[in-house]
Amino acid sequence: MRFLGIGDAADLSALYLRLVDEGHEVKISIGNSFCHDTLGGLLERVDDWKVELDWIRAAGREGCILFENVGAGRDETQDMLRHEGYNVIGSSAFGARLENERGFAQKLLASLGFATAPVFEFSDRREARRFIADRPARYVFKSNGPDAATFVGHHSRGADVSALLAGDSPVGPSFVLMDFLEGVEMGVGAYFNGEEFLRPACLDWEHKRFFPGDLGELTGEMGTVVTYSRTRSFFKRTLALMQPLLKQHGYCGYINLNTIVNEEGIWPLEFTCRFGYPGYAILDPLQLTPWSKLFRSMLDRNPTHFETAPGFSVGIVVTTPPFPYSREQVDEPKGLPIVFEGELSPEERSNLHFGEVAFHDGTFVTSGASGYTLVVTGTGASIEEARRAANALVCKVSVANARYRRDIGQKLIDGDFARVEGLRLLDFT
CB-based contacts of 21: which residues, under 8 Å, 6+ apart? Predict the structure, then answer.
């Protein structure tokens, strides 16, 4: 097959390299100039992806365009390309609205019968601060748009969120305040082929804070626990309810719904209507069906089942400065060598998923805009077994100034997973 990847930062680096390993042709377009060096020496980067449409068209049903992210007008472009007969996997205009317009998504979910927390939409800081004064509570602040910012308040009367709104922090042209929900945060995701979901769905538990113990900045994600086991019941109660709407709007790609679960129910928080990073890489070792075959089944809409391994995958995001910021904000060197302790086995190599990486003079080096260097995974029958495998492998990765979390999955082991089981949200077998 022929694949044309389109995005800002080569967020699907590891997936592109898997496709090359499977024997397919891959070209990539990278919008952010700070990221033009990513995958240098490994893949062909094109300056203008539109010029490559004839290359994709010439491949017929074997040509496929992969869109990495939403925003920057790419959402309507995906719908247009599908209308013109191109095979496109990614998102859609409807998907972008679900992800970026949080109030819209919550109202839609409520109409489908979901329990939803109170959400209040604003475009004026002062109005929002007056609202908090009149209705004191613990709030979560979330801006709208593709570069959404999130701030989880801790003050029981909302004083910290009010102070945020009084300062100079960027909040975007519109934002929402959501009542804070206590519980276990977990997501459910699946691939959608334009008409129906592929099975099985996955469940995930993200770790978004920069430091162990859930301290520090909210990053995109520092690591995740995922599984394809015991997922059917939770999927049917949540993401499966979206199938008619996704079909109506021609969605084709991965979609994830993040939730809070507690003794009062399942509370949806937000959608990810695109490939998740690092989610796709952490799912990779559990997906026995190769990526190209999975994509082929999505485009052909047959079959609607793919092969997966039982158990869990734990992923650790290995970062280097300036992460979680960008080189547009902080001047940090790149081109740092990435080396490995001893001779890695084929299985160990398959659990390394490169991100902002290039290949120069026989050595992998850091590249890109943010220091999102690679994802290390480990698998096992239990979360603890997968966690040990990931932590053992990450110790064999050596890169200057690397920062990562070694506690991925620990809260689940210490009680959160047992709580989810006690809520009867997982299949018995």
Answer: none
Exposed/middle/buried for 62, CB within 10 Å: 0-12, 13-18, 19+? Answer: middle
Residue 163 near residue 156, CB atoms below 8 Å: no
* Counted domains in the chain: 3
**List of residues 6+ apart from 362 with CB closer than 8 A:** none
The model's pTM: 0.94
- Quote the CA–CA distance of 7 and 325 in Å, as a whole number: 19
294: which residues sit within 8 A by CB, 6+ positions away?
191, 198, 287, 306
Lowest mean pLDDT among 21-35, 169-183, 250-264, 409-423: 169-183
The pLDDT, as a whole number, for residue 72 is 62
Give the CATH number, domain containing residue 173. Answer: 3.30.1490
Q: Concatenate the DSSP letters of all residues of 21-38 into one string.
A: HTT-EEEEEE--GGGTTT
What tokens appear for 338 in the block?
């990435």
Q: Encode burial over 16-32: b for 16+ CB neighbours within 10 A, e otherwise.
A: bbbbeeeebebbbbbbb
Containing H/E element for 230? none
Number of Cβ atoms within 10 Å of the Cβ of 14: 22
- Alpha carbons 253 and 97: distance in angstroms, whole number: 15
The CA distance from 102 to 82, in Å, is 26
- HSE, side-chain direction, 13 A CA sphere, residue 174: 11
Q: How many CB atoms lie within 10 A of CB 217?
A: 12
Does 10 reside within a domain? yes
Tell me the sheet residues that pair with 150: 142
**Domain shared by 150 and 210, yes or no:** no
The pLDDT tens digits for 387-398 are: 999 999 999 999
For residue 43, what are its two tokens?
């893949």
Environment class of 351 (CB within 10 Å of its CB; exposed 0-12, middle 13-18, buried 19+): buried
Q: Please report, for the domain that includes residue 67, its CATH number.
A: 3.40.50.20
**Contact call for residues 68 and 7 (beta carbons, < 8 A):** yes
The full DSSP string for 34-50 is: GGTTTTTTTSEEES-GG
Collect all residues with Cβ–Cβ distance below 8 Å to 135 and sequence separation of at least 6.
Answer: none
